[in-house]
Amino acid sequence: MANKAVILGSNFYTGLSIIRGLGANGVHTVAMDYSKENTYGAKSKYLSEQLIVPHYKKQKEELVQYLIDYAKQQDDKPVLFPSVDPYVEFIDSRLDELKKYYHIPMTEQGFWSGIMDKEYLHSLAVKHGVLVPESVSPSEENFEERVATGIGFPCIVKPTDSPSFVSAFRAKIFTCRNIDEVRASIRKAEQARLEVIVQRIIPGFDDHVYTYDAYLDQNSKVTHWMTCQKLRQFPINFGASSFTKQKYVEELDRIGAPFLEAIGYKGFAEIEFKKDAESGSFYLLEINARTTTLDPLLRKCGINFPLLAYNELTGKPIGSQAIRHDTGIAFCFLFEDLISSRDYVRTKQLRVMQIVKTHFARKAPAIWHIDDPAPAFHFLSMLFKKATRKLAKG
Are the C-beta atoms of 372 and 386 separated by less than 8 Å? Predict the structure, then answer.
């Protein structure tokens, strides 16, 4: 295939999954990283080349120019893939320039950043009749009274800009049991110059969290989709998936497809929903605007989302497909799942045998693949070195 695929970031398994999904299908894959450290995804046999480039944040202008210069050297326009949220924000901030030299599914600069902004997404969902958890901003009148009477406790203090919040606090949210903890959490965010909202916690255990994974073509029509159910997260209760199974839920398509089409979405999207344990209604939590942790599962279930984007953007037909049955396949990031499983048991949220039973499912591992083992061995080596350094210090 003439068009190269440029993947920004191979130091996380989403980048590795993009490399495998494309490289195994004959696409020339190029990983661009600002450092070779911890880039275990670049050890994949499906990677064609790795390039060390300027830092996306510290040397933003230099990276933009590097990407433009690289594309100019190619015979055919490359396809650009972000592997994590900071790269989504980087591409989105310079989309009008980069799309002259790269195939990118989104065509409207600022769209991705808007979707990633929790307050904006909340207002967008309300406008289109999609349920979202009740939220209130610290800048609103009678804020504390509204938190106490309308949101209730416990509640969460949630960032409007998730990547910056995670970078600052190594957490996705703050959980608060009373108004004093809400005040303290807001002060922390203000000191870091980050905006937050306070949000109601939808009742239900972690297995009440579902995903709607979809591809929308350049006409903003859903062509491919499937749904999944989280079983465990890391960190527990408010984290990323550590064990998730594919689970067919038709209602999520009835909610997700019209919403994504109405807002003019293009490319891959993963909507995260939570099912209210009391009402049974699904509430939209967030939208991931890039390849997600579940990509190995989605591909093993039969839909290769990075390849869909590559094929459509390079002029190939993609057809349509939906997984309308339960495959019995589960995603597992074993390293994090072992830690989260320990914490679920310690907090008496799950029993050991409940966890053990789930591991009898067919699996789509985050990193391990028998035909491409090098990334897993490199990841284990990386963990061993970290553990050795920690022991030496302490």
Answer: no
CB 2 within 8 A of CB 75: yes
Lookup result for tokens 């980087």:
90
The residues with which 103 forms a beta bridge, in sequence order, are 79
- Residues paired with 142 in a beta bridge: none
Residue 126 lies in a domain: no
According to DSSP, the β-strands at 362-365 and 329-332 are parallel
Contact 345, 339 (CB under 8 A): no
Domain that holds residue 170: 134-200
Is the CA virtual torsion 381, 15, 334, 155 positive or negative? positive
Verify that 162 and 20 share a domain, yes or no.
no
Is 54 a domain residue? Answer: yes
Give pLDDT tens digits for 223-280.
999 999 999 999 999 889 999 999 999 999 999 999 999 999 999 999 999 999 999 9
Same domain, 273 and 168: no
DSSP state, residue 329: E
Is 372 domain-assigned?
yes
Three-state DSSP at 269 gives: strand
